[in-house]
Amino acid sequence: MRKLLIANRGEIARRVIRTARRMGIETVAVYSDADRDAPHVRDADEAVHIGPAPAAESYLRIDRIVDAARRTGADAVHPGYGFLSENAAFARALSEAGILFVGPKATSIERMGLKDAAKALMKKAGVPVTPGYQGEDQSLQRLEKAAQSVGYPLLIKAVAGGGGKGMRRVDSEAEFADALIAAKREGEASFGNDNVLIERLIQRPRHVEVQVFGDAKGNVVHLFERDCSLQRRHQKVVEEAPAPGLSPRTRQALGEAAVRAAKAIDYLGAGTIEFILDTETTDENGDNPFYFMEMNTRLQVEHPVTELITGTDLVEWQIRVARGESLPKCQEELSVSGHAVEARLYAEDPATGFLPSTGPLDRLDFPRESGGVRIDSGVEEGGAVTVHYDPMIAKVIACGPSRDAAIDRLVSALDATIVEGVKTNRAFLARLIDDGEFRSGAVHTGLIEQRLEALTELPDASGPAAAVAALALTLPRGKADAPTLFSDFPGWRMNLPARRYVDLFPEDGEPMHLMLERADGGYRVSGCDSSEMLSGRWRDDTHIEAVVDGTPMLAIVVFDEDSLEVRIGGEARRYGTSAAAVEGPAGGDGSVVAPMPGRVLNLFVENGKMVEAGERLLVLEAMKMENRLTAPIGGRVVDLSITEGNQVSEGAVLLTIEPAD
After folding, report:
1. 368 and 504 share a domain?
2. Does one domain contain both 381 and 438?
């Protein structure tokens, strides 16, 4: 392998380029109109333009990728993940062109590409599968009969689905037909296949997956398991390795089942066998049973946590296996050291149901990659998050000798991450990872939904964060020396204690008027819930070492033009420094605005219709997700400005609801 083309973009393209360069392999990037100035284009030795911004016209065009490889003389192609990575036709097209595919055989992709066929194959190989229906008869009558046999609640899944698309939970027979239509429509739109399967719903499942690797000589190993249970909208948010709380028997059984699954399809390269673990049921040994869910015939987004606990470079393994070498290690040579946790930093707003946020990245600062912290990102300051691709900004990963140490490092790394220009889930992630339930290892796929209110509520505005905010506005920024009377307060008073008055305007609640008075080598703060003793110093431009009522804490303070945000141990609180900084957007409570750019997929109302608060108004499709907008208040629909099929911009007023009275 002399020259490698990466048929992908963003973070994974940069990740592959790093390893290829270390191995002495030249690299070729491909890019769409939207990615002309993207970092992965600059990182590669060569770059080829492949089309307009929409993925269907660029990154999903097999002919253009193959042509780019031919024109640049690339003798191999790495597909990354997503896009064409699990496309058997792509693997075949490369083979026919005499170009090496850094991935599995086309036949392996096909055999695991459809969930129903894959489950049948796994069952034959002795891998446990969830009870359900995977038949070819897709008539409503047959599927309804299957649903009755499986029992409610159940899951409908698109057979070609992934990432939660084409999946619906059904709790009763009355809901089945509507859920089936929605799942089939989404499966057809996303994957060109509207067939579905039905399976029993595991009520409190964990999502545990096993990394497998095979070579051309028939050797297959597993690199242990990952837990990916923390999900929203059926999409992973936090991953860790190894999975917490499993018995040695369960770990061994998972690994052995994964290897059987890979050998059943003569697997080559990196793959992941995904299992559902039933936390509410135990076997005769007291262990939780697990069931095969699907196989991803590619490298996973969360592969870094496996690399960190095994000391491997999985992209290097992929390249070596693709060019005919044996696996670098056998099963007996692989072992686990420490723990690793990864959080996906998205441009999205947890307060609005995790709707994507688009716009420029005005500021983007990550913590230094040291002390067990790793950052994998495909964007940079001055770039933008667009509607065309996944809104992930970065993967923030931390490892340590123990699970608690890895979590502590990840919380600190998230606290130190600064993103301005788009809304992000940074604060949500920090609070989630530091949550008591997650720390205890009591993880399951419903944890985020179950804890959502607590995880998204704002911390106490008048707590320690307010005192630190006042200190940050009082001390000269960036001064690491101990404060003095003259450096702190320009207004000196003879025979009176020095005082400073600070006004803070929380995002919610009443303005706070604080007074800092010099006392006992620090300050007494008045105006919080109670009078607090406070001292501290700037460590650098963003970190304050503070002591609040005898409790030491390291706070990160991020300043904006007319506000500041205080981050302490995963908690974040923003304060305006003027009343104007916290004034809400114009418009009454009845205005319904587009939370993101998108297309109006369905419209359920018309001008003059009476609606109740919470009633469904429309479905907005954006970033391959369907988002339902509901009525904020009850009343009459007026000023409806859209029709089905319309493209709308973020913030556009779509309709207004006029209160009935």
Report:
1. no
2. yes
Block means of pLDDT (10 residues each) for the chain, 661 residues, are 97 98 98 97 98 96 98 98 96 97 96 87 93 91 94 92 83 95 90 91 94 97 98 92 97 98 97 95 91 95 98 98 97 98 94 84 94 96 92 97 98 95 94 95 93 87 90 77 48 60 86 87 78 86 91 92 91 83 50 85 92 87 73 90 88 88 66
SS3 29: strand
- Picking from 317, 311, 291, the residue whose alpha carbon sits closest to that of residue 241 is 311
- 98 domain residue, yes or no: no
Please give the pLDDT value at position 494. 53
From the candidates 14, 251, 298, 409, give the one annotated as an active-site residue: 298
**Do 468 and 564 belong together in one domain?**
yes
Q: How many CB atoms lie within 10 A of CB 108?
A: 23
CATH of the domain at 650: 2.40.50.100
CB 659 within 8 A of CB 647: no
Tell me the pTM.
Answer: 0.84
Q: Do 552 and 417 sit in the same domain of this protein? A: no
Same domain for 424 and 475: no
SS (H, E, C) 215-267: CCCCCEEEEEEEEEEEEECCEEEEEEECCCCCCHHHHHHHHHHHHHHHHHCCC
Exposure of 560 in the CB half-sphere (CA atoms within 13 A): 18
Cα-based angle 230, 262, 203 (whole degrees, multiple of 5): 30
Residue 191, domain CATH: 3.30.1490.20
Domain that residue 255 falls in = 103-130+205-337
Q: Which of 424, 390, 90, 112 is nearest to 258 (CA)?
A: 112
Whole-angstrom Cα distance, residue 661 to residue 659?
A: 5
Count the helix, strand and coil residues of the chain and give each as a percent rounded to the nearest 5: 30, 30, 40
Query: For this structure, is 298 an active site residue?
Result: yes
